[in-house]
Write a structure and sequence with these properties.
The complex is a heterodimer of chains A (289) and B (312).
Chain A: H1 2-24, H2 26-43, H3 45-48, H4 80-116, H5 118-132, H6 136-147, H7 151-178, H8 181-188, H9 193-229, H10 241-248, H11 257-284
Helix pairs in contact in A: 2-4, 2-11, 4-5, 4-7, 4-9, 4-11, 5-7, 6-7, 7-9, 8-9, 9-10, 9-11, 10-11
Chain B: H1 2-26, H2 34-41, H3 48-58, H4 64-76, H5 90-125, H6 130-144, H7 147-161, H8 173-203, H9 206-213, H10 218-255, H11 261-270, H12 274-302
Helix pairs in contact in B: 1-12, 2-3, 5-6, 5-8, 5-10, 6-8, 7-8, 7-10, 8-10, 9-10, 10-11, 10-12, 11-12
The chains are: A mainly alpha (289), B mainly alpha (312).
Chain lengths: 289, 312
């Protein structure tokens, strides 16, 4: 009993130490605060502005920031403030959905490849080598371009390119865990493959994968915004940050605010995710422990 | 060494075969019938019969394997097909636009080196001093900044407000400056940190201590002894980020109306000019793979400590 209590205490101190370390890293803390703030702002968008993000009002086009339009209006008289807030919902939701797709594909294929080994592993690794021979953005651009410019196709294109990294990392981790004694014992005592994967392997790889995923959210947001900027992702009138910047390009000489605010929003959110990811990575980096 | 190069070149051929299959596969993603599309692009209201004739002529009715082998044979002869939009030879069109893209890539690299090298070295020498902290903030900004936004902000500041640089187009060095900064900035941020980390590692080595104890001047040690060794791992990282550079040119060329391959690609995407998209993808993959091969080989030439035996 005493021993048990001791153990739980140990786990507790270890956990609180970890959390303490995250917060000790001030940059990660800044990232957390910024992200929470942005999430709150986007969630409360209807409370913060009464302006409709898609309502066209040609009488109000290209207005500079004012009391009614805190960030000005675009070429169709739409409120940039409302569009930036609602755009945050779009951009972040898309990034999270794409991330979930990438994780599901990447982790399953990595598990399969590492666990099965042999021909399947070889085949999957060669396919990955081939995919890595393409510069990511360009392959995504080509796939999205060929499928046709819309948000769904862009999400498919980004996911089709990005899963590769996860599959490779997961495979590597599985290969090393597979050699551990407890996995060998489980397999000799007749535990099924599914159960070994789900109960012994998956729990061991999940935390480093979460760290990697956090670091990746920023780059996914950037990539989707980039494709939308080129005109491939979100289509009008959807408020999406990359697409908003694309809309404002032609008015850069007279109405720079149309571009400035959505871009600053991307910068802020991506930076927040990078800061958090960086803090988490330090936490899991064996060198720093 | 020769063994290694031969092995890697063989591996490159295997990868390129895979790349060709995948690139060919892209054409299978085209929604609708390509033959009908070609006729429509030519402004014809196509009947089923005409579509069928064209399908036959293009070989679209052949089995996929036959289509693929025909396509590969053409590609090997340098024939990437004809552009739907301009009617020109795709390979020629790409070659025609290439110098502008190479110029931009080169400009981006120069900016990257000019920023990353001094920042990286200084933040290693003054570790945890204000220079180092500033460079860390610079790195975070650089990695999080959307390049298309940076480019537009630079245009607004330096071209619209201050009228120092031309807004867009290609021609003089002044035209090249802003696009190069846009392209080089993000990479510079990452590389400054890489150079810093690598410098710090090298500065802790025994041979630096030996050089110091021989009484060599500190700046000579840093340039002659430390930097040379610190740059080796940076070279390998460059191979991987060359892909970013290629992707970056597409975005930068579109912001600055730079008449290169990247701008041509995006125009082709919107006019559904599939042969150009396919040709471009194949071309970038080849460049990317070859650059990585060169990087790997030069890495081994630069650092004799790395064994070339048994490693791919």
């Amino acid at each position: 009993m005493e021993h048990k209590i001791n153990l739980t205490q140990q786990v507790k101190t270890y956990k609180s130490l970890n959390i303490h370390k995250v917060f000790k890293d001030k940059m990660a803390l800044v990232g957390c605060v910024v992200l929470i703030l942005v999430l709150l702002l986007t969630a409360m968008a209807p409370l913060l502005t009464r302006n409709d993000p898609v309502k066209v009002d040609l009488m109000e086009r290209l207005n500079p920031p004012s009391r009614t339009y805190p960030m000005g209006t675009d070429h169709l008289g739409r409120c940039i403030f409302a569009r930036t807030l609602y755009g945050g919902r779009v951009s972040m939701t898309i990034a999270i959905i794409v991330l979930i797709i990438i994780l599901t594909i990447g982790v399953s294929i990595g598990l399969l490849s590492g666990y099965m080994g042999g021909f399947i592993d070889n085949f999957i690794m060669r396919v990955i080598d081939i995919l890595l021979a393409f510069p990511g953005l360009i392959l995504a651009l080509a796939i999205a371009g060929i499928l046709g410019p819309n948000l769904m196709n862009t999400m498919i294109a980004v996911a089709a390119v990005q899963w590769v990294g996860y599959a490779r990392i997961v495979r590597g981790m599985v290969l090393s865990i597979k050699e551990k004694d407890y996995v060998k014992i489980a397999s000799t005592s007749g535990t099924s493959h599914t159960s070994i994967i789900l109960r012994h392997i998956l729990p061991n790889i999940i935390s480093p994968i979460i760290v990697l995923a956090t670091l990746d959210v920023g780059s996914i947001i950037l990539r989707i915004a980039g494709l939308s900027f080129l005109g491939l992702g979100a289509q009008p009138p959807t408020p999406e940050w990359g697409a908003m910047i694309n809309d404002g390009r032609s008015y850069i000489q007279t109405a720079p605010w149309v571009i400035f605010f959505p871009g600053a929003a991307i910068l802020l959110v991506v930076m927040a995710f990078n800061l958090i990811g960086d803090g988490l990575r330090d936490l899991y980096d064996p060198k720093s422990v | 060494m020769i063994n290694y190069i031969a092995k890697r070149s063989f591996y490159l051929i295997i990868v390129m075969i895979g790349v060709s299959i995948l690139t060919f596969g892209l054409s299978q993603l085209i929604p609708g019938d390509p033959a009908e599309l070609i006729l429509r692009q030519m402004g014809m209201e196509a009947t089923t019969e005409e579509v069928e004739i064209l399908r036959d002529r293009l070989g679209l009715n052949d089995p996929l394997v036959v289509q693929y082998s025909k396509w590969v044979r053409n590609v090997l002869r340098g024939d990437l097909g004809r552009s739907f939009r301009t009617g020109g030879d795709v390979a020629e069109e790409i070659l025609y636009q290439l110098p502008a893209t190479i110029e931009l890539t080169f400009g981006g690299l120069v900016i990257m080196i000019f920023l990353a090298l001094p920042i990286g070295i200084l933040s290693a020498i003054f570790k945890n001093k204000w220079i180092d902290h500033t460079s860390r903030i610079f790195a975070f900004f650089g990695a999080s900044m959307p390049s298309f936004w940076l480019g537009l902000m630079l245009i607004y500041l330096f071209s619209v407000r201050l009228s120092i640089f031309p807004v867009m187009g290609r021609g003089t060095l002044r035209h090249l400056f802003l696009p190069s900064v846009t392209l080089g900035m993000g990479m510079a941020a990452t590389y400054a940190r890489l150079i810093r980390a690598s410098m710090l590692e090298v500065l802790g080595e025994d041979f630096i201590l030996a050089a110091r104890s021989r009484g060599l001047r500190e700046n000579i040690i840093i340039i002659n002894n430390a930097l040379k060794n610190a740059l080796i791992p940076v070279v390998t990282a460059f191979g991987m980020s060359f892909g970013h550079l290629l992707g970056g040119t597409v975005i930068v060329e579109n912001i600055f109306a730079w008449p290169g391959v990247g701008k041509f690609l995006v125009e082709s995407i919107f006019s559904r000019d599939y042969p150009v998209i396919q040709g471009y993808v194949l071309w970038t993959a080849l460049t990317f793979v070859v650059v990585n091969l060169i990087v790997d080989i030069s890495y081994r030439l630069l650092d004799p400590r790395i064994s070339t035996e048994g490693k791919m």
